[in-house]
Amino acid sequence: MESQYDNKKRFIVNAIYFFLIALIVYVFLNYAINLISPFIFAFLIACMLQKPTKSLAVMLKIPPKMVSIVLVLLFYSTIGLLFSLIGVKLISVVTALISGLPMIYETQLEPFLLNTFDVVEQAVYRLDPALVNVLNEGFNQFVNSLGEDVKNISLSLVGSLSSIASSLPEFLIKIVLMIISTFFIAMDYDKLAQFISRQFTNRNIEVIKKIKQYISHTLFVVVRSYLLIMSITFIELSIGLSVIGIPNAVLIAFMIAIFDILPVLGTGGIMIPWTIITFIQGNYQVSIGILVVYVIVTIVRNILEPKIVGGQLGLHPVVALMSMFIGANLIGVIGLFGFPITLSLLKHLSDTGTIKLLK
């Protein structure tokens, strides 16, 4: 009897303990990480550049600090150039699309609605001619209302772009802080690493080293897994769009496959609007073909993603899918990748006996 009581007491204590840990992690990821994210990314980038810095310093017989400064400059210059080119192109395309919404409505959607209404009107007239006037009045109100809605949506989207632009100063401040911090951390990385290691016992240092090695390996595995998923999506889209007869099918498939990495939008962010637009334009076969390709790609991805990611991380597909879903809903993109990696890390530490978590 006393043994059962002790077991229940131990279970309650462990449950409260893990709940508090989960709560602290959630609060940290959801709130505190936004404040310290520039410094976290700066440390990770500096850490990533350490091996090439030391190798080049030995090879060229140059002080490591000088090499680290040059590598950090090259890293941020390359990233900045790529993001600038992509950002300018993306902004111009999105702005043109948003400003062209009213014209698309007038030239594409409204004629489609009028043609559809003519067919419906003829069918209603055969059934009951008295209903035609009521139908006409309702349709006119609908078209006028829809036109106003399209204009309002266009204006609100332009306003959203303006609000995004107004938030750029805060974002730029974080970027500047991250760049400056990267320089300082990269130059004094060894001193910082030694200072941090002195704050822990030898056992804790060993655990931290294991965690670092496992996370580095796991991040590589996750990137490799999503590259595999992206490649499968690219092949499916290339074949599907080529069969439909879409020009430049391979190039379009490549762009959609890259867009598919985004957890919220994915392939649907491009293919669903594309399906609707081609249907309105009267290209019914192409529209149905694009929809079929989208459905196939989505089904295959939803089946393969938990198996590939979960298998690489040592998690059951259901556990991987659940952690990805919960993480994405709680924290977004960080949670989508962070939750499965965290679960995989805890399982690894438990399997190796570093911590006693699972039986």
Automatic annotation (TrEMBL):
One of its GO terms (cellular component) is membrane. The keyword Transmembrane helix applies. The keyword Transferase does not apply. It is found in: Membrane. The chain crosses the membrane at residues 12-29, 72-105, 171-189, 219-244, 250-272, 284-304, 324-346. Keywords: Membrane, Transmembrane, Transmembrane helix. InterPro entries: AI-2E-like, YtvI-like. It holds the Pfam family AI-2E_transport. It is a multi-pass membrane protein. One of its GO terms (biological process) is transmembrane transport. Belongs to the autoinducer-2 exporter (AI-2E) (TC 2.A.86) family. PANTHER family: TRANSMEMBRANE PROTEIN (PTHR21716), TRANSPORT PROTEIN YTVI-RELATED (PTHR21716:SF68). This is Sodium-lithium/proton antiporter. It comes from bioreactor metagenome.
